[in-house]
Design a protein that fits this description.
Elements lengths: L7 H23 L4 H8 L2 H29 L20
Length: 93
């Protein structure tokens, strides 16, 4: 197996992301977010809407950001050439 070296910038973001996850887990334990309290919170309509809409909104924003990046770089694919029309009455080669 070949192990490609990651650029330092990506490694930095991976470490920062892992640290944020660890901080969130510790904060959740410190605030005693027990499953009982989370279940009560999940029964509220606002929480249900947030659980559905926040990831969906982030996905739409990510798609828009990617489309914007591609357009700004000018790497749009070339249009496909027009298909040759064959007449139905012509003899087939």
């Amino acid at each position: 197996m070949s192990s490609a070296k990651r650029p330092p910038r990506i490694r930095f973001f991976l470490v920062v992301g892992l640290a944020l996850v660890a901080v969130a887990a510790i904060a959740g334990l410190a605030l005693t977010l027990a499953p009982v309290r989370l279940e009560q919170l999940a029964r509220e309509p606002d929480a249900q809407i947030a659980v559905f809409m926040v990831p969906l909104t982030l996905l739409v924003l990510a798609v828009l950001a990617e489309a914007t990046r591609i357009v700004w770089q000018g790497k749009l694919p070339a249009p496909a050439p027009a298909r040759r029309r064959r007449s139905h009455w012509a003899a087939r080669p």
